[in-house]
Amino acid sequence: MTALWQLNTQLFRENIRRVKQHYPIMAVVKNNAYNYGLAFAIKTFMEEGIDTFSTTSLSEAIQIRQLAPRATIFLMNPSREFDVLRENDIHVTLPSKSFYDTHKHDLVDIHVHIEYENLLHRSGFQNIDDIRDVLEDHAQNQSDKMIVTGLWTHFGYADEFDVEDYHIEKHKWRALVDELHQDGYQFELIHAQNSASYFRENGIFSRHSHVRVGIALYGSRPFASVPRHTIKQALTLKANVIQVRTVHEGEHCGYSFAYTAQNDHTKLAVVDIGYGDGILRTRAQHDVLINDKRYPIRALMMSHMFVEVDANVKAGDEVIIYNDILRIDDYTFKGVGANSEQLSALNLNSLIKEYQA
Fold first, then answer.
1. Which of 47, 254, 269, 321 has the fewest CB atoms within 10 Å of its CB?
2. Is 108 strand, coil or helix?
3. Which one is catalytic: 20, 30, 238, 267?
4. Rounded-to-integer distance, Cα 16 and Cα 238, Å
C-alpha cells in the first residue's frame, strides 16, 4: 500500500470557473503549478479560457511555451539568459534601474514588465522617478531596444486585516499607476492583485489588464472570511492503516519518546505516510479522518504516523489527511502553514499521483 495524492479534475475545473468569473486571469503556475503538475495545469487552464501565465522559473517558462505555443508567459524573476528569453518569447521582469542600465542592449526585442518594489521589498524599482528615467531613456532610443509591455507589483499584505499595510501598499501602487498614465505611458499588461487582493476587492482594479491569481485556482481560500462554497478544494491526500497496535500506559511510541500512552489498551493505527512524504509537523498536531470519524495523530515519523483509534478501525482502512472536509486552507487558518507551503511540501516522488475524472 502507498499513500495517494488524488485530484478530482472535474471539481478542479469547476473551481477555475468559480474563481475566474468574467475577469482576465494571469494564472500563477510556479513550482510545478503548486505541485498539481505543470502540464495538467496549463492544459486545463487553457481549456477554461486562461492563456496568460506566470512563473518564477525559466525552465518552467520554457516548458509552458512548449505546452502553449501562443500563450503569454511572464517570468517573475529576472534572468540574464537573454537569448533563451528571445527564442521562447518569454516576458520577463525588469527589477531595477541598475539592471536596465547594465543590460539594456542585452534586452533587445525582449518583452519586459517593470516591477515596483512596494512594501514587500523583495525586488523592483523603489520609486517612480527611476521608472520615469528608464522610460524616458527607452523612448529616446529609436531602435534595437527592449519592448516595454507590462507594469507590475506584488502585494505582501493583502491577507492581513489587523494592520494598515495592505491599504498603504495598494494606495502607493495605484497612485503610481495613475501618475504614469497621466504622463502618457501606456502598458499592455498591468497586474498586481494576488488571490487575497482579488477576493478582498471583489474584482479587478481599474487600468489593470489582469489579476494574477495563484492559490485560489488550486482550491484554497486566501483568508478565512471567504465563504467555503466560493472556492472548492479538489485535492484529496489519503494513506492506509497498515496495522493496529495495542500499547499500555507508560509505553513510548515513535522516535525519541514522541508519544507516551496514557491508558492501558490504547489502540494505535500505524499509517503509511510521514514527514518524508511532505506531512508538516504542524499538520500532525491535528486530526485525520478514518471511516468518516476524526482521530488524533499521536506521532509522526519519516514514512509513518501513529494515529490513536478505537475498535472500529482495522488494517486496510483509508486515512484522509486532506480532502474537502479537512481542507488545506482550514489548516492554514489554524497556523499549520501557508496554503502554498502545505501543497509544495507534498513529496510526489514518494506518493502515488492520480488524476480522477
1. 47
2. coil
3. 30
4. 23
Encoded amino acid at 283, one letter: R
Q: How far is CA 126 from CA 61, 94, 132, 176, in A?
A: 26, 12, 12, 11
pLDDT of residue 144: 86
30 is catalytic: yes
Of the candidates 92, 99, 100, 96, which has an alpha carbon nearest to the alpha carbon of residue 76? 92
Cα–Cα distance between 239 and 253 in angstroms, integer?
A: 20
Distance of CA 324 to the CA centre of its chain: 18
The single-letter code of the amino acid at 257 is: F
Q: Tell me the CA distances in angstroms from 76 to 17, 113, 236, 320, 325, one per residue in order.
A: 25, 9, 30, 35, 34
- Phi and psi, residue 38, nearest 5°: -60, -45
For 65-132, list the strands marked E by DSSP. Answer: 72-75, 91-94, 111-115
- Show the low-confidence residues of the chain (pLDDT under 50): none
**Nearest-angstrom CA–CA distance, 114 and 350:** 40
pLDDT of residue 262: 87
Please count the residues of the chain.
Answer: 357
Model's pTM, two decimal places?
Answer: 0.94
Cell of 96: 531595477
| Residue among 116, 232, 238, 255 flagged as catalytic | 255
Burial of 286 (0-12, 13-18, 19+ CB in 10 A): middle
The count of other CB atoms within 10 Å of the CB of residue 184 is 7
25-28 vs 318-322, strand pairing mode? unpaired
Outline where DSSP puts E strands in the chain: 4-8, 25-28, 52-55, 72-75, 91-94, 111-115, 147-152, 189-191, 211-213, 235-247, 252-253, 259-260, 266-271, 287-290, 293-300, 305-309, 318-322, 352-356
Q: Nearest-CA neighbor of 124 among 163, 169, 167?
A: 169
Q: What are phi and psi of 234, to 5 degrees?
A: -100, -5
